[in-house]
Amino acid sequence: MSAPTSSLLIEVVNGALVIRHWGAPILGQNHDIALASRVSIANSSWDEPQLPGLMRESARGFLGRPSLSGHRNGKAWSTKFEVTDFHHQGNHCAVTLRDFHAELEVIVTFDLDAFGVLIQKATVKNIGNSDYVLNEFIHWLPLPREATQNLDFAGRWSNERQPQCRDIQIGTWVRESREGRSGHNFSIADIALTAQTSFQSGSAWATSIAWSGNSHYLVERGFDGQQSIGAGELLLAGEVILKGNESYEAPALFAVYSSQGLDGVSAAFHSHLRAREIHPKRPRPLTLNMWEALYFDHNESKIRELVDVAAEVGVERVVLDDGWFHSRRNDRSGLGDWVVDPAVWPNGLTPVVEYINSKGIEFGLWFEGEMVNPDSDLYRAHPEWILHEGDRTPPLWRHQLVLDLGHEEAYKHVLEQTSSLLAAHNIVYIKWDHNRVLVDAGHLGVAGVRRQTQAIYRLFAELKKRHPGLEIESCASGGARIDLGVIDYVDRFWTSDNNDALERQTIQRWTSQVIPPEMLGTHIGPTHGHQTGRTLELSMRAITALFGHAGIEWNITQATAEERANLATWAKYYKDNRALLHSGKSVRIDYPDEHGYLYGVISADTKKSIFAYVQLTPTVTIHPASLKFAGLDAAANYLVKAVYPAGKPRFMLITPPQWMDGITMSGSALATIGVSAPILAPANAVLIEITKL
Ligand code: DGJ
């Protein structure tokens, strides 16, 4: 199977399904690849070379971690699958493997799309009569030995998706996610690299698991010299027990090979995601989220004042966050009771929604339907509806417990209360939060994370079905549920609770490794950041928020007249340029100066691009490294100039470089010579437009 950027070569040998190659495109006649790949008979080794294939079984001489593990009350513990069916058409391939002794069937499918995204799916079926306990199924792909580095992502609340890289050595590197949501520490991708791979060049082999529950990523190099990258759902003990004829559908693995560095990987993921029928197509509305403006202090007249300023600035959607529902005056009570609180909203939400709509602005509302406070009517009525084990109650986290959505009555409660609110008001958007981890998460005596994950997918799908046009934002204490599983049910992710633009630079840089910017909520926070206390220029906050689904999260009734005017010009700039920002190719330049970032978006026809140069920390040299722009049309001439949609940055110079007022250069000169970088104060940014003449 071949795409312009990659090939996948699969072979059946002695009944085993062998992935011979996943990487650069293979052209021509290649009948002898199997022969070319045969290894020596080594000393102290097998008498015949063994080919364990995709199932990685000990019965086929494999000594690493198998793809499938499980048993039937101690039996059927070791498998030897044989390919019994193989369908290959174009870039789709479906393979059936059976082990009649273990009484199991595995169907694996591979789909390689035009952008080079390989989607690997698998179903494990019990074709026997006794119960089969499935411990795990992991998708694996081979890595060549030039992949010597492994990049993944770690993080915590307010600092998600921080890259970490290491040498691949003999052994297994495992990244587990056991939070019951993908998590702040979830690796949005696991990527193998050569020692030279950068943003713009070199090989990268990337995987991303499409699952929002527990998961694991693995990179394994065996002492035989083979190495692989894998991922799958992390099943809790006894979570999947297949009765006769029952099947387990493993979460899909999305994989990309790129010969054009990490940006090649993100280009493939972005193109794939954008090509989905369900990808949000409407221009992404400029959003005002009221959380950092109001917190729990919901007050209709304050909201009207805020909305007046929002309308003046050009906001298109306003979101009422946490605090509107029954007894929710702080984070200690109310979760579970999804009814408007008359104590704060004596006339209900309708008048405020109508007021917002009268300004031409859409209305959105916050929910956290998977959660319950012990201090709630729901919990008082149904304490048994929480995820728990035995007679234990899991430890509280933000004063809340997790509702067992695998419990049909609990599921209906959340669905019906949410749905009634949506039916009764003009709510086009919901922000759906998930503020705690799942621990000891039992459903009626058995592990309940998988069931819970499936339930939330079902709930989102049902809400969208009942309320056509409804958009959903996936939020989880910021960016703790951003993954390729939930992406098919939502339209936006809340990237991080950290609205500090300096810190957001890195969080957004790496979240967009997989997720296209139009799905990442990026807000202008208050002048003094609420998370870090840092004071940042409006221009820095505005430029940072521009590279995503832009919004504002700040009490702008307190903004000065000058700030409001700047917000209005920035809002117009966002609207004028969002078609480019949300469809173009994201480019991260391999900028040689570690004190700065240079990145941008280039339109598909290379006619227009917008770049940001960000001075993160002070440089050691007087002049930072020149700004060189990759990805433009080398032969074309471009107008290059700095633009200031939200006011000027803080410079640390007497006169800025002359090119900033506008000069003409060819794409090749911009890539090789570039323009000199202005000297900015730390934590400042400048926007650069490059337009074909
Ligand atoms: C965490 C979210 O990430 C915030 O944006 C906000 O919605 C709060 N929860 C509300 O409790």
From TrEMBL:
The active site is at 433 (nucleophile), 497 (proton donor). Its EC number is 3.2.1.22. This is Alpha-galactosidase. Belongs to the glycosyl hydrolase. Keywords: Glycosidase, Hydrolase. PANTHER family: ALPHA-GALACTOSIDASE C-RELATED, GLYCOSIDASE FAMILY 31. Substrate binds at residues 157, 321-322, 398, 431-435, 475, 497. Residues 601-678 form the Glycosyl hydrolase family 36 C-terminal domain. GO terms for molecular function: alpha-galactosidase activity. It holds the Pfam family Glyco_hydro_36N. Residues 16-242 form the Glycosyl hydrolase family 36 N-terminal domain. It catalyses: Hydrolysis of terminal, non-reducing alpha-D-galactose residues in alpha-D-galactosides, including galactose oligosaccharides, galactomannans and galactolipids. PROSITE patterns: ALPHA_GALACTOSIDASE (PS00512). One of its GO terms (biological process) is carbohydrate catabolic process. It comes from the Bacteria. SUPFAM superfamilies: (Trans)glycosidases.
